[in-house]
Specification:
The protein is of the alpha+beta class and 965 residues long. It has 15 helices and 46 strands. The strands form 11 sheets. The protein has an 8-stranded parallel β-sheet with strand order 8-7-6-5-4-3-2-9. Helix 8 packs across helix 9 and helix 10 packs parallel to helix 11. The longest helix has 19 residues. The chain is globular and about 120 Å long.
């Protein structure tokens, strides 16, 4: 329940403190990386450590198992509450409530487990009757509450109602609360046929929370004894007095947080507050992180699936908060997923515990009554992330393989023990994992990965990498990968997207070029990666991953205000991020002028902690400057901290600020960053302190203020300062001579100035072959490294460098051979054919030699010399020797070894010649040979010398190769 004066202040201050960002000069914008925030650390202080051996089992074992004597709510309550969709508007009435009951039956929600249809605030008149009883609003409920209860009961459902543990409810109209009227109101509810009571916390007059909620508990028990109708008791105390420690003796569920709003930031903040409380939950005693927002329009469908998954694995009450008369098919698909509901309603009653949460990649495990585990892989960040754990890591016993059930895809797989997925931004993959002796009847699980959220300007091309990894005990056959995007986009695979077989633990990696239309509008667009494959028994299986590619616009040159630039993403703890005003309430545009220390600012961003606003800068901006602080709409409690992140690096922080601190200048060098992220944390203070006697309604929310100007100086000098004296592409320091000056004109490349004699960064060079790869640790799916391949492998084809003769040439020397001499490392000056087999000689003849009868060799030129090794000794006898080990191969001038090659030349007998021991026979004349094509990449010969015979095959592309992991 929310109220204009009291509830919003309570919610915002409880969740985290609002903060403001003020503009002065210079801005530089967003970063796509997700850092660990101080608010997160505080919220998770009591969560199990990642990788602790007893994480899932020990934490769950400590959860209370006893339920209240009346045996109510042995599984988390499921139903509907109107507040999140209607608030106190006129559309909340008797017809709506009856219509929801009809939909429960018609749409199968009743069969899925939903049973409560609950009324929230605004159902009564502002004044009690002459007899002191509550009076239903005759306009909203012309037939009274009992008639509505009878109708709901006729459908096999139950009815719930709302009031407050204060003199009035939370709505500004001042509807009567139950403080001092507990016995009368409880009896009236029972007489009407009420089955569920939500008891709020507004206007409580400072009376001790335990006393107020205990009084209503006793009144409900007394009413149940007279009517025979027990009432589920929901304590809505907002978590202020740690009700999880004492409310289990009073009611069946208790709110652990402030009110939720229909935004990603609000949902995420509430989930983080509720997750560490797993040990307090159990049958008949549930942590309540507030109602569901699924379907209300403030989040994407992927975010709503995460919302529903997290609430289910936390064993939270599932109370629908959207108007089901207007719900979409996708909303019904989320709310009606019975496999996910079964996780929430499991009779064991365990709340999921955190196994790990590093860098926003969450693994949450829930023990189930049948011994299986529900495992949520939750991605908090704004880009696809690889998230992994193991079957034993979530508490399952050791086994050869496990059954892996995808609860959103409704597909069964088997896994050798790995539980992993590349999870879309803000997405959740929910598995149910069990040790199943029939694991071989399921196809192998496969992880389909994408390298991350891509950014491109209109008409530009982004390079995407995908990978499919076999996680099962058996190979995947007939593997194929497909990448699709919006109409008008050009998508091309630049490496193989198919494989006949993918062995266990191996992956198929594919590179793609994705080109946006020239006139496409800025914004996010979906890319879908799909894979198909078959098990050894022929069972088909699929994998699918939806990600986003963003069409971005670079900021203009000069100084810009953050509120004038489009952002990539904006997350806020309460309501939307506001431009040039404070946050206000939950609706957009309901804020007030930005004011810090009595000074009003015309430009800036209004945010509510925790908050993140991300901008695209494309490496063009050099500096960010702002005035930050808590705005003048403040209370006496709460702390905030402001941070600036350039790509993956935090470049500035304000430290902890309160409303007593003046506006603080924040400056950060952000040169070279593609994105800039503005982060506001709650400073670790999640709850108000020093509440007065009259309670929360006296507190005003602390809101953020400020504008973030972006300074984008495109001068060549700014470019060097932007890179902090280093070329971020080449990874080397810039020489002093590279700095442009009056006598060193510069050239502009993609908005960045570079000296003309400086090598262009490979990623910006015009040649399509000149690409640079990110560091290995930044590549989710690194390609197989040539340097890491074994020197020799059975069945593999290797290419050895050709002998090199001719004039002193850098290309010859790069292969480690002296010009005019055979290549070192071979007994006779040339490498042995690695495809040699026992009993056959495959030694290459040095150039200019011919075979004599009996196998001897001689030179065709009189000046030919017997080849010698580098140390001056004669080479080894003419016997088949092993291929030279890689570590002893010659190095190039720059210190790198050449790649292994393959010799394709063969020793041939002259026409008419016969092997030793055989009689000569008349041989037909040899047909004329076709002209030999010149060998590619051959070193130039010396003048007057014929080209060397033989050929060398070009190296195959490594892209798309199936590589063992």
């Amino acid at each position: 329940m929310r109220h204009h004066c009291f509830r919003p202040a309570k919610r915002r201050i409880m969740g985290a403190v609002s903060a403001g960002l003020l503009v002065t000069v210079g801005l530089v914008l967003p970063a796509a990386a997700q850092p660990t925030r101080s608010g997160e650390a505080a919220a998770l202080a009591s969560a199990p450590a990642a990788g602790a051996p007893s994480t899932p089992t020990a934490a769950l074992a400590s959860a209370p198992a006893a339920a209240p004597d009346e045996g109510l709510a042995l599984t988390p309550p499921m139903g509907f509450n109107n507040w999140n969709s209607t608030h106190c508007r006129a559309e909340f009435n008797e017809a709506m409530v009856k219509g929801i009951a009809d939909i429960f039956v018609a749409k199968g929600l009743k069969d899925a487990g939903y049973q409560y249809v609950n009324l929230d605030d605004c159902w009564a008149l502002p004044q009690r009757g002459a007899d002191g009883k509550l009076v239903p609003d005759p306009v909203r409920f012309p037939n009274g509450i009992k008639a509505v209860a009878d109708y709901v009961h006729s459908k096999g459902l139950k009815l719930g109602i709302y009031t407050s543990a204060g003199t009035k409810t939370c709505n500004s109209a001042g509807f009567p609360g139950a403080l001092g009227h507990e016995k009368s109101d409880a009896q009236q509810f029972a007489d009407w046929g009420i089955d569920y009571l939500k008891y709020d916390n507004c206007n409580n007059q400072g009376v001790d929370a335990r006393q107020r909620y205990r009084t209503m508990r006793d009144a409900l028990k007394a009413a149940a004894e007279t009517t025979g109708r027990p009432i589920v008791y929901s304590i809505c105390e907002w978590g202020e007095n740690k009700p999880w420690e004492w409310a289990g003796e009073l009611g069946q569920l208790w709110r652990t947080t402030g009110d939720i709003s229909d935004s990603w930031g609000s949902m995420l903040s509430i989930a983080k507050q509720n997750l560490p409380l797993a040990r307090y939950a159990g049958p008949g005693r549930w942590n309540d992180p507030d109602m569901l927002e699924v379907g209300n329009g403030g989040m994407t469908d992927s975010e709503y699936r995460s919302h529903f998954s997290l609430w289910s694995i936390m064993a939270a009450p599932l109370l629908i908060g959207t108007d089901l008369r207007k719900a979409t098919a996708e909303t019904y698909g989320i709310l009606g997923n019975r496999e996910v509901i079964a996780v929430d309603q499991d009779p064991l009653g365990k709340q999921g515990t955190v196994v790990s949460s590093e860098d926003g990649r969450w693994v949450i495990a829930k023990e189930m009554a049948d011994g299986s585990r529900a495992v949520a892989l939750f991605n908090e960040t704004d880009r696809p992330r690889h998230i992994a754990t193991s079957a034993t890591g979530v508490g399952l016993p050791g086994a050869t393989a496990y059954r892996l059930r995808d609860l959103w895809a409704h597909q069964d797989y088997h896994t050798a023990g790995a539980i992993a997925a590349t999870v879309p931004a803000h997405g959740t993959v929910l598995y149910r994992v069990s040790a199943d002796a029939r694991w071989a009847s399921y196809p192998p699980a496969a992880e389909l990965g994408l390298d991350g959220t891509a950014l491109t300007e209109a008409g530009g091309t982004a390079r995407i990498e995908t990978a499919l990894t076999d996680l099962g005990r058996t190979p995947a056959h007939q593997v194929s990968i497909r990448l699709t995007g919006p109409d008008g986009w050009r998508i091309k695979a630049t490496s193989p997207a198919r494989a006949a077989s993918l062995p266990t633990g191996s992956r198929l990696a594919t590179r793609w070029q994705v080109t946006a239309p020239a006139r496409v509008a800025p914004g996010g667009y979906e890319l879908t990666v799909s894979a198909g494959y078959r098990s050894p028994e022929g069972t088909g299986a699929t994998a699918r991953l939806v990600s986003a590619i963003h069409v971005v616009v670079a900021p203009p040159s000069g100084t810009s205000y953050a509120s004038d630039l489009p952002w990539l993403s904006a997350l806020n703890g309460w309501g939307p991020v506001e431009k040039d005003t404070s946050v206000g309430e939950n609706a957009a545009g309901d804020g007030h002028p930005l004011t810090l220390g009595g000074t009003t600012y015309a430009k800036g961003l209004g945010v509510h902690a925790p908050s993140e606003v991300t901008y695209y800068t494309g490496g063009r901006c050099s500096r960010f400057t702002a005035q930050v602080g808590v705005d003048d709409e403040k209370g006496t409690a709460g702390t905030v901290a402001f941070e600036v992140w350039a790509d993956e690096t935090k470049v500035a922080s304000s430290g902890t600020l309160t409303n007593a601190d003046p506006a603080t200048a924040l400056t950060a060098a952000i040169g070279g960053a593609d994105t800039v992220r503005l982060v506001v944390t709650d400073g670790g203070d999640q709850r108000p302190r020093g509440l007065g006697r009259r309670g929360l309604h006296l507190l005003r929310p602390l809101r953020p203020r400020g504008s973030l100007p972006a300074r984008c100086d495109l001068s060549s000098r700014a470019e060097i300062l932007c890179c902090a004296g280093r070329d971020r592409h080449a990874g080397r320091a810039l020489p002093a001579s590279a700095e442009p000056g009056p006598h060193r004109p510069s050239v502009v490349l993609a908005g960045r100035d570079l000296p003309p004699d400086r090598d262009l960064p490979a990623s910006r060079a015009p040649s399509p072959q000149a690409e640079t790869s990110p560091p290995a640790e930044d590549r989710p799916f690194p390609w197989p490294s040539r340097a890491r391949r074994p020197a020799a492998r059975e069945g593999a084809r290797h290419r050895a460098p050709r002998p090199c003769r001719g004039t002193p040439d850098s290309r010859c020397r790069a292969r480690g051979a002296e010009p005019g001499h055979p290549e070192p490392g071979h007994p006779e000056g040339g490498p042995m054919n690695p495809r040699a087999r026992p009993g056959r000689r495959h030694l290459r003849r040095p150039r200019g030699q011919v075979r004599r009868p009996g196998g001897a060799r001689s030179s065709t030129r009189e000046d030919a010399q017997q080849p010698t090794a580098r140390d001056g000794h004669n080479p080894a006898p003419k016997t088949a020797t092993a291929h030279r080990p890689r570590e002893t191969q010659p190095s190039t001038q720059d210190g790198h070894r050449p790649p292994p090659g393959r010799v394709t030349a063969r020793l041939r007998r002259r026409p008419g010649a016969c092997p030793p021991g055989r009689s000569p026979r008349a041989a037909p004349p040899a047909p004329p040979r076709p002209p030999r094509r010149p060998a590619p990449h051959r070193c130039p010969s010396a003048p007057g010398r014929p080209p060397a015979p033989g050929r060398t095959t070009a190296s195959r592309s490594r892209a798309g190769r199936v590589a063992g992991v």
